[in-house]
Amino acid sequence: MALISMKFIMVALLATVILTTLCNAGKVYTGGYLYPQFYDHSCPKASEIVNSIVAKAVTKEPRMAASLLRLHFHDCFVKGCDASVLLDSSGTIISEKRSNPNRNSARGFEVIDEIKSALEKECPNTVSCADILALAARDSTVLAGGPSWEVPLGRRDSLGASISGSNHNIPAPNDTLPTIITKFKLKGLDLVDLVALSGSHTIGQSRCTSFRQRLYNQTGNGLPDFTLNQVYANELRQRCPRSGGDQNLFPLDFVSPTKFDNHYYINIVAGNGLLSSDEILLTKNSVTMELVKQYAVNNGLFFDHFAKSMVKMGNIAPLTGSKGEIRKICRRVNH
């Protein structure tokens, strides 16, 4: 019996070793998954370089933290997290920068250029632009006072862009809640992800054109959105008239506009959510309403959910292994 047991154990151990070897081989050679240590040997200073340049940019202009975080979001919702948002128009490529969600509002491209240039000097042809976006988003969040998380790495860069995808896949400020829920669901993200990731609006600014209808004509009947605190609405009208001033900027969180915290949710509960897509989280769905209320009273819970949802979002359809390429310049493909 003892001999049989020993043979059984040896066979089991051997099977485990073989299985582990095969799994590891798959991980190494197919590159079919992302992991935080991806550049530990090929470019050990990668994270340090990204962080130092992001820190410099955010110190110079605090709003840049929100801009870099938003770039990662707008990248992942179109074709997956593949740096397609960074491509300029050229040849057959029509840049996503021209899409409605990005035109006159997406920014931070020069910061990404600076990071890429530094990384090419340190370790040429190694770190993808898509991974730079993911790291910059995490560092921006931390620099603004938000949570940190380990960023899974190993993405590769796309060979094209999709202006159609950018126009249709990215949730818009005036979308209905069912439409926003559907756009998240199509990317494998649930209601917790939706409400937690919306919390990125705790930093950054929005243009008058993104919320004007709430002030004057919410449903096409010439009346304002009465879910918006009318004292706050009157303040907004002073710089966001019925016509003109489209590009005038307003903080998404007027209480602490450059600090990553849960005031975004506190504002929504008080009727002070700037965008329609903010306020409907409270007024149009019982599950999202409950999450808004929980985050409004529990900053730690918001931070925990936000960090987990950012990792989940960063895993949307990445290019790995031999797919795509490592761009030398983030604005254009290599060939």
Automatic annotation (TrEMBL):
Q: Which SUPFAM superfamilies match?
A: Heme-dependent peroxidases
Cite the PROSITE patterns for this sequence.
PEROXIDASE_1 (PS00435), PEROXIDASE_2 (PS00436), PEROXIDASE_4 (PS50873)
Report one GO cellular component: extracellular region
Known catalytic reactions:
2 a phenolic donor + H2O2 = 2 a phenolic radical donor + 2 H2O
Q: Where does Ca(2+) 2 bind?
A: T202, D253, D261
Q: Where is the signal peptide?
A: 1-25
Q: Where does Ca(2+) 1 bind?
A: D75, V78, G80, D82, S84, E96
Job of this protein: Removal of H(2)O(2), oxidation of toxic reductants, biosynthesis and degradation of lignin, suberization, auxin catabolism, response to environmental stresses such as wounding, pathogen attack and oxidative stress.
What name appears for this protein in its UniProt entry? Peroxidase
The species is: Dioscorea cayennensis subsp. rotundata (White Guinea yam)
Please name the taxonomic classification of the source: Eukaryota, Viridiplantae, Streptophyta, Embryophyta, Tracheophyta
Name of encoding gene: LOC120260679
